[in-house]
Amino acid sequence: MVRLSFFVQLKYEIVGAPADFIFNIHATRTQCQALVDESLLVKPDLPVSLFTDPAHGNRYARLRAWPGGHDFILRTPYYAQQAAGPLAKHISDTLLYAPVHASTVIMSGSSTKNKNPEYGRRFFFLSAHDANLTWMGGLLRIDWLVSDETFNATPPGSALVFELHHNKLTNADTVRALFIAQKLNQIRNLTSLTGAEQPSISPVYIPNCSGGAPEYACNLNDFAQVLTDATAGSLSPKASSPAPAAKARARPTSARP
Q1: Among 19-23, 125-129, 157-161, 211-215, whose mean pLDDT is lowest?
Q2: How confident is the model over 22-32, as pLDDT tens digits?
């Protein structure tokens, strides 16, 4: 059996009058070809009509877009699951084993003696390619937007950050996701990102986990369950989320990485 996976991203800038689009980007269902999974994301949200040519079986998507910028993204969650699944599991295990308490860790909802040799480390750095960031975004159904860049861009030196925070008053452990990237003029001028010169930082909303907490914080166990479900391919459809907004903020010195 041969498995094929495709990722298609189209960007248009419409000037003046509205424009009608007909896309022939969906895979065709035939006796010799089965479609495992697909998803179509349009930003901003627009009504899309899908229809199939009865003569040849070709599938089309039709929509009307208004002046402005638009992204038409066809994602394949199955491919993101295969490509980013091991990385997601590693992130989940790292957060669950993090030094939240002095002599114990939270694992599967219960406190156990820690046996992880990495215990005690406060910072984990994973070097990867821009494709890894894109796959992780597709796996978790997350979006981001940073200054001077297009939707879900992965500019040079960008990073997807997961911060673990512990509230001593409530004994709650939460995870915050951030996307960090240099601005275009910082890249061009080789600017040192120190002092008042900071990169663009965008809080990331995590579907099926984030709520109304500041910067879309998630309960640690809920976040670990989202990663488990995504890796297993059982993540529920993406919940509605606020549009990602570019936002520069100073990193609090009291935050626990």
Answers
A1: 211-215
A2: 988 888 888 88
Residue type, 169: L
The pLDDT confidence band at residue 72, using thresholds 50, 70 and 90, is low
The domains found in the chain, sorted by start residue, are: 8-75 (2.60.40.2250), 78-232 (3.40.50.1240)
pTM here is: 0.61
Structure tokens at 4: 């094929």
Alpha-helix residue ranges (DSSP H) falling in the chain: 77-96, 130-140, 184-189, 220-232
* Lookup: tokens for 104: 């114990």
- Cα atoms found within 13 Å of the Cα of residue 193, Cβ hemisphere only: 19
Q: Which residues contact 232 (CB under 8 A, 6 or more apart)?
A: none
- Element containing residue 218 per DSSP (H, E): strand 218-219
- Given a contact cutoff of 8 angstroms between Cβ atoms, the answer to whether 178 and 192 are in contact is no
Provide the sign of the torsion angle of the four alpha carbons 88, 42, 204, 13, taken in this order.
Answer: positive
